[in-house]
Amino acid sequence: MTDHIVAQAQKILPNIPLSVVSQGAEALVFQTGTHPYCSEESLIHLSNASTFIIKYRPPKPYRHPKIDKQITKSRTIAEAKFMSKLSKLSIPSPDLISIDSINGVIWMGYKGKPLANGEISSLKNWLWWLEKQDDSASLCVSDVVEKVFLNIGALIAKLHLNEMIHGDLTSSNILLEENHDGVFEAVLIDFGLSSYSGLPEDKAVDLYVLERAVLSTHSVHSEIYNEWLLKGYNDMHLSKEFKSKQGSKKLVETIKRLEDVRLRGRKRSMLG
Amino acid sequence: MYQVFTFPQFPEERIFLSYFTNVASDNLEHIKSQLISANKEYDYCFLNTNHLVSLEHLRSGIYRAISNYSNSSMKAKTLNTEIIFNLSPVNNIMDSIKRFGVDSNCSNVIVIKVLKAGEPEDESFKNISELFTGEVESKELTDNVLFSLVDMPRFKKVYKLNDAAIQGDGTQGVWTRLAVSACQLRGL
Ligand SMILES: Nc1ncnc2c1ncn2[C@@H]1O[C@H](COP(=O)(O)OP(=O)(O)OP(=O)(O)O)[C@@H](O)[C@H]1O
Ligand SMILES: [Mg+2]
């Protein structure tokens, strides 16, 4: 199955070495060392000038070919536009390199740096890696981890304050990149389900999805992690930059909604 | 002096690029008139440097133009104009020619020719400087050259970046990222 899709991608991308990073429901993600239009690293203005990511949405045989082409095209464009909007807002996200919407291909910068065990530096892999260390009890709730969660909360707040909704906030859709000072900075990826909305409901659901993801994948410390996330989220709303832009009003509305959404979630799980 | 390069996906399309400084404005006016009358001797893509922030930015436009050529989805009549159109964030071919093409007030000129698959080696590019009169100089086009020549206020205006949340003056890298996404997403 995957082989067949890889062959399709290879046909669209001749002479580009492709290695599979992940296969999701909608897309196949590849890594490559080849840039589409700059051959020398010195020409490439990206934090990583030697590895690139290609996200490919293959045709879905169960959809009508004409409709399938339209869906692929519009989702590919929507994701690339969302990324571009984020760079304009200086919200850390992969840099767009090129887009071939007809073929469902987005070429973007590689974010993060493989962990010591070779895995992609997603929040999920990093926390799991910390849990496996000898000293895990103190590592998992260290200042470094706290800073990471505060930073993620702040990032999501920035997104929401610009009326943007991620739509699929999980700990694998957040990558960690070490900056020049050795501090981990969160980078958002995967905007396949992203949208634009100013509604407290949509923002609250976005937060709730992440809260649930943290609870299910990092359950031991999930309570403190979620507390840090919300603190980062709060602080950004009340920061100098956003206070004058109705930050505190928006915060109150969203948090109130979040409580409703949690309640709905609990009721639903009680009903089974 | 000229550079030749290709893109991995399109190994048969060879791109020739030269850069000239000190081009006089009457010379530029003449070139413009020859382009308008479609003189075959002037079958090149001529660009001014006012809105180009880096080589990566320039190449991203050439790349999209060649991709479109190879998928038969060009919007412009010629590949030369398609390159100009794909450097522009504005979805209007005439407007992009005005901003990115020959500008009689900009004495720095980039000349590009794409030799398509099967086209014989073009000797004319070696003599490209014959299209220029006076004290023109042919130089190597580098990232530093482009960044020193770009007219930042005009660049930001054309790419609608005056409201971008950029720290300080922004680096060449930051402006490159924003220009590249604008070019890649134009018209989509
Ligand atoms: N820019 C990037 N830099 C580094 N790794 C990336 C990048 N983009 C994606 N990845 C890796 O590829 C994986 C899948 O990417 P993404 O989430 O965008 O695809 P998806 O098909 O929507 O995935 P899923 O359906 O599994 O959520 C990510 O979890 C991450 O490990
Ligand atoms: Mg994902």
TrEMBL record, chain A:
PROSITE patterns found in the cross-reference section: PROTEIN_KINASE_DOM, PROTEIN_KINASE_TYR
Catalytic activity: L-seryl-[protein] + ATP = O-phospho-L-seryl-[protein] + ADP + H(+); L-threonyl-[protein] + ATP = O-phospho-L-threonyl-[protein] + ADP + H(+)
Cell compartments where the protein resides: Chromosome, Telomere; Cytoplasm; Nucleus
Entry EC number(s): 2.7.11.1
Keyword hit for tRNA processing: yes
Superkingdom classification of source: Eukaryota
Keyword annotations: Activator, ATP-binding, Chromosome, Cytoplasm, Hydrolase, Kinase, Nucleotide-binding, Nucleus, Phosphoprotein, Serine/threonine-protein kinase, Telomere, Transcription, Transcription regulation, Transferase, tRNA processing
GO cellular component: chromosome, telomeric region; cytosol; EKC/KEOPS complex; nucleus
SUPFAM superfamilies in the record: Protein kinase-like (PK-like) (SSF56112)
One matching Pfam family: Kdo
TM region positions: none
Enzyme class: transferase
Domain Protein kinase: residue ranges: 15-272
Biological process, per Gene Ontology: tRNA processing; tRNA threonylcarbamoyladenosine metabolic process
Subunit structure: Component of the EKC/KEOPS complex composed of at least BUD32, CGI121, GON7, KAE1 and PCC1; the whole complex dimerizes.
Stated role: Component of the EKC/KEOPS complex that is required for the formation of a threonylcarbamoyl group on adenosine at position 37 (t(6)A37) in tRNAs that read codons beginning with adenine. The complex is probably involved in the transfer of the threonylcarbamoyl moiety of threonylcarbamoyl-AMP (TC-AMP) to the N6 group of A37. BUD32 has ATPase activity in the context of the EKC/KEOPS complex and likely plays a supporting role to the catalytic subunit KAE1. The EKC/KEOPS complex also promotes both telomere uncapping and telomere elongation.
Family: Belongs to the protein kinase superfamily. BUD32 family.
PANTHER family registered for this protein in UniProt: EKC_KEOPS COMPLEX SUBUNIT TP53RK (PTHR12209:SF0), NON-SPECIFIC SERINE/THREONINE PROTEIN KINASE (PTHR12209)
NCBIfam families, A to Z: arch_bud32
Protein's recorded name: EKC/KEOPS complex subunit BUD32
Organism in which the protein naturally occurs: [Candida] railenensis
UniProtKB/TrEMBL annotation, chain B:
GO cellular component assignments: cytosol; EKC/KEOPS complex; nucleus
Presence of keyword Ion transport: no
One Gene Ontology term from the biological process aspect of the record: tRNA threonylcarbamoyladenosine modification
UniProt keywords, alphabetically: Nucleus, tRNA processing
Source organism, top-level taxon: Eukaryota
Localization per Swiss-Prot or TrEMBL: Nucleus
Family: Belongs to the CGI121/TPRKB family.
Function: Component of the EKC/KEOPS complex that is required for the formation of a threonylcarbamoyl group on adenosine at position 37 (t(6)A37) in tRNAs that read codons beginning with adenine. The complex is probably involved in the transfer of the threonylcarbamoyl moiety of threonylcarbamoyl-AMP (TC-AMP) to the N6 group of A37. CGI121 acts as an allosteric effector that regulates the t(6)A activity of the complex. The EKC/KEOPS complex also promotes both telomere uncapping and telomere elongation. The complex is required for efficient recruitment of transcriptional coactivators.
Protein name: EKC/KEOPS complex subunit CGI121
